[in-house]
């Protein structure tokens, strides 16, 4: 004798089974990512596999009196100084909140205006 089980009874059975065994009830078979969430994390074993990389900057900071020189950092600082000397460096920081974007005047125009003003202000001969 075969017993016909209705779909609603079967769904109730699956729901009860999920409650008893503490599993996720997913009647629509939607993708949940549970497989990846249950999996062991890979990060710690990858960190153990690859040895730590020592860089010169970190060693120079740790041992300041050892005389280690980071040539890349020294070159960067030299380039920054060169740019500042040419007027291409970073703008100065503002002293107050309102002065963060000062108006920059054209240096040629300003020098020309000074020459004209001096010429106009000279005493008549």
Number of DSSP helices?
6
What does the radius of gyration come to? 37 Å
Kindly state the number of beta strands.
0
Overall geometry: elongated
Average pLDDT figure = 82
Q: Determine the structural class based on helices, strands and strand pairing.
A: mainly alpha
| Amino- and carboxy-terminal Cα gap | 132 Å
The percent range for strand residues is under 5%
The largest pleated sheet is described as: none
Order of SSEs: HHHHHH
Query: Uncertain spans, ≥5 residues at pLDDT below 50?
Result: none
What labels would you give this structure?
0% strand, 6 helices, elongated, mainly alpha, 125 residues, 52% helix
Write the topology of this structure.
Blueprint: H1 7-21, H2 34-38, H3 43-49, H4 56-62, H5 71-86, H6 107-121
Could you walk me through the main structural features you see in this protein, from its secondary elements to its overall organization?
This protein is an all-alpha fold. It is 52% helix and 0% strand. The chain is built from six helices and no strands. It has helices at 7-21, 34-38, 43-49, 56-62, 71-86, 107-121. The longest helix has 16 residues, at 71-86.
């Amino acid at each position: 004798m075969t017993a016909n089980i209705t779909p609603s009874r079967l769904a109730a059975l699956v729901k009860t089974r999920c409650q008893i065994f503490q599993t996720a009830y997913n009647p629509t078979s939607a993708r949940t990512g549970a497989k990846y969430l249950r999996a062991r994390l890979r990060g710690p074993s990858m960190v153990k596999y690859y040895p730590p990389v020592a860089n010169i900057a970190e060693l120079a900071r740790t041992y300041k009196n050892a005389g280690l020189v980071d040539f890349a950092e020294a070159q960067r600082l030299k380039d920054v100084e060169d740019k500042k000397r040419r007027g291409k460096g970073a703008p100065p920081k503002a002293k107050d909140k309102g002065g963060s974007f000062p108006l920059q005047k054209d240096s040629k125009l300003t020098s020309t205006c000074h020459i004209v003003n001096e010429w106009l202000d000279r005493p008549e001969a």
